[in-house]
Specification:
It is built from 18 helices and 35 strands. It has 769 residues and is an alpha+beta fold.
């Protein structure tokens, strides 16, 4: 029997390239229900278990799972094929109340029949009414444009919630046991234990006492200093100590982490913290610990950090390049996006544990590229729609987040459900006769605040530009800090750039939810505002944009926002870029998102790479140099003395590297079409793999700048890609899969369309005698 199996595999491997037809393609994989891939996963107090949904009635343990809150869920899957240029042409979905029925290709809830559709990411359930608190099973098969029919996928199960409240589904917070990377017996009798990286968690220790009655002191800290745990790290860098009375013999002890009032007081003003689930207990971020008054050196299995995080697949993405600094920054940002999800919601770090739109936006953009995960971003966004924070700009960031949710998932449910609230977040109610918006001209009416769900007093909503400032926050003061000396006036250039961006995106959202008249209205408002913005803020003598109408001061922020959001006429782009170069990194670690967007959008890849891989004080590398293993809130401790050493605001490169440097982006919602437009600058080589709702995309290039550029791409089935290659010079030769091709010239690029599968490109300078 074994020999026959090997013969069959060998035969198929040879026959596929020869016939190309009549062979069953690989089955659909990575099935999702309402964007969740692992709907059948059951956790026992945070740990993934082998318990199935069908066995829940036998469980005496406390368990956690994901429930489907919609009576008409949406199904998705990844189409797979051995053939290039594959598109799904039809599918058949079976949903049943029993896996036995599906085993016989039968369904008592829904048999879609052969549905002539290419939709593989958001197919709406169309069967009998689903019942609450019930387990269902489903599978899918596909047909493609090569005339082949797949087998059915593996069966996936899901359970409905007790009430169909339409809330966004998400996974429970997960616990992972982690062991030390180093254990050292120190000269002063302490045992030093290092886990290598910080994480939010608790500590579990197995300790031995000969007589009992002795007490050890355990120290926890985020910071290592001179090879030891730093017991006085300063600011908001976390440190704590705990005393454990030992019992005689060998016993395992779990530290009960004391709650910190700063991040657990639900009665505090200025936002409500997200509390830890009961089953995980309270946590603290720490990298290392020291055990004092313990005369034995424990083994690495005696020391366990119970790390809390949202479920995360480390293998979903990868990146490497010829720049070692860039590689370190990618690893830092990717890991940080895992570690900072410990509450199951994007928050601002451990100091407050409050969701803010800024962190939600940056986390969302990066998370899409490092893991195939969409639910935590949607949940965080919808929380902030109804529990917003106070900066004017942040309200409008919700429109950007809403569009990203649809762009990267192709699932319109959140847009449809929250459309009116998202529309209010454009802040058109603050619009004045000059076409601009202002928070200083009496427009913050009760009706406006109610429409955006802001429950504080009107004075609590005001402009921020960037964060943090020097001094005691320095809000709306003429101070340097991370605002580059921005001068606050009645009409703020940054706030109005955000308003223009929100209008443009709202027009797309209106189109997506079937509101053509409102799409036209928002489009017209945006077009008119673009003219007003340039007329009122641009200084023709300086060739750049002012901070406000009533000031002559020009900051990095006024210009990088205008450029990133498309407000600069083509004839003025170069002078604005020149001004941006003159200011350096005069923005915050989170504000750098906009700076990177501006530079890459206008093909200023050399300067962008210089900033990304910089080792200066105001750089992402400085996070590692000062000793943090998670991204931080500011460039350095001195720029914000109470900064968090565990905040996703510093993880911008997790998005910028794949989206801008490697150039991978969705051209249509849900990656129906993809663009790959790398901007390699001086990098000799780089390779990346990123997950999408339709499957993995891989891009790998190596180059001799100015002479040749080789690139290999892997495109998932059921999508197409627009590939851009640097032109090198006026004369060039281009081959695709070793076949000579001609592409369309666009600026300094040559572009062409390809289908799914692996493709090899080579473009070389052609010398003419």
């Amino acid at each position: 029997m074994i020999n026959k199996q090997y013969i069959i595999v060998f035969f198929v491997a040879w026959i596929i390239p020869v016939t190309g037809a009549g062979i069953t393609p690989p089955v659909p994989t990575q099935l999702t229900v309402n964007l969740l891939e692992h709907t059948g996963r059951v956790f026992l107090d945070g740990y993934p278990s082998g318990l199935s949904l069908a066995e829940l009635g036998t469980a005496i343990e406390r368990y956690q799972l994901s429930e489907i809150h919609s009576p008409r869920p949406r199904f998705g899957w990844v189409v797979n094929s051995d053939h290039p240029n594959t598109m799904q042409t039809a599918c058949r979905i079976l949903v049943a109340s029993s896996p036995v029925l599906l085993a016989n290709d039968e369904a008592d809830m829904w048999d879609s029949g052969r549905d002539e559709t290419g939709n593989s990411i958001s197919v709406v359930y169309g069967g009998k009414p689903l019942q609450p608190s019930t387990v269902y099973y489903w599978k899918v098969k596909t047909w493609d444009n090569h005339g082949t029919e797949s087998d059915f996928s593996n069966v996936q199960d899901f359970i409905t919630s007790s009430t169909f409240d339409e809330n966004t589904e998400r996974y429970p917070v997960q616990i992972t046991d982690e062991y030390p990377t180093a254990i050292k017996q120190m000269n002063d009798g302490c045992v030093y234990i290092d886990f290598g990286k910080a994480a939010f968690g608790r500590l579990k220790l197995t300790l031995t006492s000969e007589k009992g009655g002795d007490t050890v002191t355990v120290h926890l800290s985020e910071r290592v200093k001179d090879g030891r745990l730093d017991r006085q790290p300063g600011g908001s860098i976390r440190y704590a100590q705990y005393r454990i009375p030992l019992m005689r013999g060998v016993h395992t002890y779990v530290l009960k982490i004391h709650p910190d009032k700063r991040n657990t007081d639900v009665g505090k003003q200025g936002g409500q913290p997200i509390l830890m689930p009961e089953y995980t207990g309270e946590v603290i971020p720490f990298r290392c610990c020291e055990i004092e008054n313990y005369d034995r050196k424990p083994s690495d299995r005696d020391i366990v950090r119970m790390s809390m995080h949202y479920p995360f697949d480390e293998t979903a993405s990868s990146f490497s390049s010829s720049d070692t600094v860039l590689n370190l920054i990618w690893d830092l940002c990717k890991y940080s996006l895992k570690a900072t999800t410990f509450t199951g919601t994007y928050i601002d770090g451990d100091r407050e544990r409050i969701p803010y739109e800024r962190e939600a936006l940056i986390s969302q953009l990066g998370h899409y590229y490092v893991d195939r995960e969409f639910a935590i971003a949607r949940h965080s966004h919808e929380h902030l729609l109804y529990c917003p924070t106070w900066p004017t700009e942040y309200f409008m960031q919700s429109v950007w987040i809403a569009w990203n949710d649809y762009l990267y998932t192709g699932n319109p449910v959140s847009l449809q459900r929250h459309y009116e609230t998202i529309k209010a977040k454009t802040l058109t109610g603050l619009r004045e006769s000059n076409g601009l918006i202002s928070t200083r001209t009496g427009k913050k009416t009760p009706d406006l605040l109610k429409s955006i769900h802001f429950k504080d007093n009107p004075g609590a909503m005001y402009d921020i530009v960037d964060w943090p400032h020097t001094g005691i926050l320095g809000l709306e003061k003429d101070e340097g800090g991370e605002t580059d000396g921005f001068v606050f006036t009645d009409y703020n250039a940054v706030v109005n750039a955000y308003h223009y961006r929100a209008l443009c995106l709202m027009a797309r959202i209106a189109e997506a939810v079937g509101q053509p008249e409102e799409m036209k209205e928002f489009t017209n408002l945006a077009q008119q505002m673009k003219k007003d913005y340039h007329r009122l803020f641009f200084d023709p003598k300086k060739g750049c944009y002012k901070d406000g109408i009533d000031t002559g001061h020009c900051s990095l922020h006024a210009n990088m926002f205008a450029l990133a959001f498309g407000l600069v006429p083509p004839k003025n782009v170069q002078t604005v870029l020149d001004f941006i170069h003159s200011r350096g990194m005069a923005c915050s670690i989170s504000g750098a998102l906009i700076l990177m967007e501006a530079l890459y959008e206008y093909n200023d890849a050399d300067y962008a790479l210089q900033l990304l891989s910089s080792t200066a004080e105001r750089s992402w590398y400085n996070t590692l140099r000062i000793g943090s293993t998670l991204t931080i809130e500011a460039w350095d401790n001195k720029y914000k003395p109470n900064l968090d050493w565990n905040q996703s605001a510093g993880s911008v490169p997790a998005y910028t590297i794949p989206r801008r440097l490697m150039g991978i982006e969705p051209l249509e919602p849900g990656f129906g079409k993809i663009r790959i437009k790398p901007q390699p600058s001086t990098l000799r080589h780089a390779a990346i793999k990123i997950p999408t709702i339709r499957g993995d995309i891989a891009v790998k290039f190596d180059q001799t700048p100015g002479d040749r550029f080789n690139m290999k791409v892997e495109i998932p089935a059921n999508t197409t890609a627009e590939v851009w290659l640097p032109k090198l010079s006026g004369k060039y030769s281009l081959t695709v899969n070793d076949v000579s091709r001609k592409g369309e010239t666009d600026g300094n690029y040559v572009k062409l369309w390809i289908g799914s599968g692996e493709h090899q490109f080579e473009i070389k300078e052609r010398f003419v005698r």
